[in-house]
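Form 7-S
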Amino acid sequence: MKIKTFIVDDESLARDRLRQLLQNEPEIEIAGEYANGHDAVAAIQKAPPDLLFLDIQMPELDGFGVLAALGAGPMPVIVFVTAFDRFAVKAFEVHAVDYLLKPFDRERFQKALRRAIEQVKNRNAAVQQRQSAVLAELPSAKITNRVAVKSGGHVVWVKLEEIDWIGSADNYAELHVGAKSHLLRETLGALETRLPPEKFVRISRSAIVNAQRIKELHRLFYGGCELVLQDGTRLTLSRRYRDKLQQLGVK
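Output:
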């Protein structure tokens, strides 16, 4: 049985290089090539590969963004293809998740591939735990223009500018977009670190608001504030988050 492999890199020359190195490997089946993170997420969710060669530095949705969009479920064995700083690369080595630092030669590629194949064949909980530890140490990917969410077995791209506010739903974040809502498999705290702070403001333990959607602000007698959004939604800015008023442009 061959190892189903995806190549994800926004540079065509980099994809060509990986394909050339992989196509003569008897154990490898190149099942997909993707030039951006969004297409990669959709393909992985539809038919997960065993092995993923993943570029870190891609526009719009980078390698870390791809992994964040996939959530906390089982991951393929990942070989990062990166020009990322050497401290992060060292973390990959310590936790046995391999990497290829551009530019790489055939010998270094073969070392990474052999290690990856061994992990695919001997996949176990310990490998999953080491991989999760690596991802936890790396900086979260910032969301720039849009976020990927699953909806009815499909992937939906939600533009940040269209989000009115975001609520907490246990281990999910609920994106409110007009009359619709979408669940994102990520905690509100984790999502907050990835959103642009000049556009989105945490107003309570259970809510983040798009500052551009705020129509009115009413001060409450106990020290909090009530925000009224353009669609009439009312949200409370708790006393604990009063310092956010300055972020909202209110003194």
